[in-house]
């Protein structure tokens, strides 16, 4: 082996040793991530009377490994009022989003939306849909 080939040989061996050592170093675990899960994202009230105030509870669960923070809940209509029992959920924790809809000014078929914003990196905004048909008087 010539002097130059010996140098290359030692460089290659050195690189292989470095790669072996690096492969043995444990990689950092991914940071805990929250995950907002709703078993139901649509609710149909069916046929309703025009003087009713309708109500439904959507269940929200944190199925992730990090703390879930619900940052806002917005509605597509002023006729909708919402109440969230908790805004911060530990992993595995559940809360209710209570939705009330005043249908006194609605006629016929209706569809409204509620947007839930959170720190879930996969689904930062989840859209819930409520529908129904207001009976004519």
Concise overview:
The protein is an alpha+beta fold and 137 residues long.
Task: Write structural notes for this entry.
The longest helix is centred in the first third of the chain and has 22 residues. Helix content is 16%, strand content 47%. The model has no long low-confidence stretch (mean pLDDT 89). The strands form two sheets. It has a five-stranded mixed β-sheet with strand order 2-9-8-4-6, with no helix packed on it. Strands 1-3-7-5 form a four-stranded antiparallel β-sheet, with no helix packed on it. The radius of gyration is 28 Å and the shape is rod-shaped. It has one helix and nine strands; from the N terminus they run H-E-E-E-E-E-E-E-E-E. The protein has 137 residues and is of the alpha+beta class.
Task: List its salient traits.
137 residues; alpha+beta; Immunoglobulin-like; 5-stranded mixed sheet; 4-stranded antiparallel sheet; 1 helix; 16% helix; rod-shaped
Show the helix and strand layout.
Blueprint lengths: L2 H22 L11 E2 L4 E7 L4 E10 L5 E8 L4 E5 L3 E2 L4 E9 L5 E11 L6 E10 L3
Parallel strand pairs: 2-9
Antiparallel strand pairs: 1-3, 3-7, 4-6, 4-8, 5-7, 8-9
Q: At the first level of CATH, what is the class? A: Mainly Beta
How would a textbook summarize the main sheet?
A: 5 strands, mixed
Q: Indicate the CATH topology.
A: Immunoglobulin-like
Estimate the mean pLDDT confidence: 89
Based on the coordinates given, report the CATH architecture.
Answer: Sandwich
Share in β-strands: over 45%
Q: How many angstroms separate the termini?
A: 101 Å
Helix content: 10-25%
Counted by DSSP, the helix tally is: 1
Q: Quickly give the structural class.
A: alpha+beta
- Structurally, how many domains make up the residues? 1
Taking pLDDT < 50 over at least 5 consecutive residues as the criterion, the unreliable ranges are none
- Assembly form of the protein: single chain
Helix and strand pattern:
HEEEEEEEEE
* Overall morphology: rod-shaped
The CATH superfamily label reads Immunoglobulins
The strand order across the widest sheet is 2-9-8-4-6
Radius of gyration: 28 Å
């Amino acid at each position: 082996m010539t002097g130059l080939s010996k140098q290359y040989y030692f460089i290659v061996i050195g690189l292989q040793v470095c790669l072996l050592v690096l492969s043995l170093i444990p990689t950092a675990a991914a940071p805990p991530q929250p995950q907002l899960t709703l078993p139901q994202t649509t609710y149909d009230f069916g046929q309703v009377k025009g003087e009713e105030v309708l109500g439904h509870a959507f269940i929200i669960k944190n199925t992730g490994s990090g703390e879930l923070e619900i940052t806002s809940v917005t509605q597509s209509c002023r006729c909708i009022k919402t109440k969230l029992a908790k805004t911060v959920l530990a992993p595995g924790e559940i809360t209710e989003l209570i939705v009330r809809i005043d249908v006194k000014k609605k006629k016929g078929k209706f569809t409204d939306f509620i947007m839930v914003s959170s720190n879930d990196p996969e689904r930062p905004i989840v859209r819930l849909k409520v529908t129904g048909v207001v009976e004519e008087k």
